[in-house]
Q: What sequence folds into this?
């Protein structure tokens, strides 16, 4: 239901096989590709104007905050290949 609301009311582009846990997303523009999992974290937050361009996995652990403004997180071109789960 959450994904339907995010797509249809907020206009976010969300791919296939996406899971969004107890996350609050409040962004002007959101594009989430296929096979993405946004899980629950205890006391974890991403605050204000950050850019995530993720090809490989990224994990933000419990009690972690990404604060400030305009941080960029990129994983393409990393030395590790994307792991495909079967």
A:
């Amino acid at each position: 239901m959450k994904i339907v609301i995010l797509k249809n009311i907020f206009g976010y582009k969300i791919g296939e096989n996406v899971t969004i846990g107890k996350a609050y997303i409040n962004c002007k523009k959101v594009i989430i590709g296929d096979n993405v999992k946004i899980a629950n974290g205890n006391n974890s937050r991403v605050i204000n104007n950050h850019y995530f361009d993720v090809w490989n996995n990224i994990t933000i652990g419990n009690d972690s905050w990404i604060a400030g403004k305009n941080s960029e997180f990129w994983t393409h071109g990393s030395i590790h290949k994307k792991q495909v789960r079967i």
